[in-house]
Design goal:
There is one protein chain. The protein is 86% helix and 0% strand. With 168 residues, it is mainly alpha-helical. The protein has one domain (3-163). Helix 2 (19-39) runs antiparallel to helix 3 (43-71), helix 3 (43-71) packs antiparallel against helix 5 and helix 5 (91-108) runs antiparallel to helix 6 (113-138). The chain is globular and about 50 Å long. The chain starts with a helix and ends with a helix. The relative contact order is 0.18.
């Protein structure tokens, strides 16, 4: 299978899985990881803090989606709308997993908490860039427009890295 065909398949698969939610999860995770890891060196505490913030953020999306459903004419009670809303917004959680997994794994491999955080943040930059690239590729962009879309997505991760640098 050619590289272009693989990119197209990856972009199509991503489009089916809510790339916006993945981006939200990745950006929130990078930002919280940068902020929390600046003052806390206990890896478990950092990972749990990041996870807690992402879950609260996800729950806020679930609740607002369930309320939006009311305005769209869904008359079911909240407890009936919530599972649908939770499933729709699950990509936020999925987008958070890679950076947290990289952070924990690197620490388990012997890196310091700070080193693990920096590498996880740079991983987030790459992850965001790939999502931006695949979206632009799927939209048929090439050349500088493709590069600009990738860089734009990556810039949110770079902001998290800069945040950590300034907070540390």
């Amino acid at each position: 299978m050619s590289g272009g065909r693989r990119r197209t398949q990856a972009a199509d698969e991503l489009a089916r899985r809510d790339p916006g939610g993945l981006l939200y999860g990745a950006v929130i995770t990078a930002g919280v990881l940068a902020a929390v890891s600046a003052n806390v060196s206990h890896v478990q505490r950092v990972a749990l803090s990041v996870a807690a913030v992402v879950v609260v953020y996800w729950l806020a999306h679930v609740y607002t989606e369930s309320q939006e459903m009311l305005y769209e004419g869904d008359h079911r009670p909240l407890h009936r709308r919530t599972p649908h809303a939770a499933a729709k917004e699950v990509s936020i959680l999925v987008g958070a997993v890679p950076a947290v997994a990289v952070y924990v794994l690197l620490h388990l491999l012997g890196l310091s908490a700070t080193g693990s955080a920096y590498w996880a943040l740079w991983f987030s930059v790459a992850f965001l860039s790939v999502i931006g690239y695949l979206g632009a590729h799927r939209a048929g962009m090439t050349g500088w427009r493709l590069a600009l879309e990738s860089a734009g997505a990556a810039s949110l991760g770079v902001l998290a890295v800069l945040g950590k640098l300034f907070l540390h």
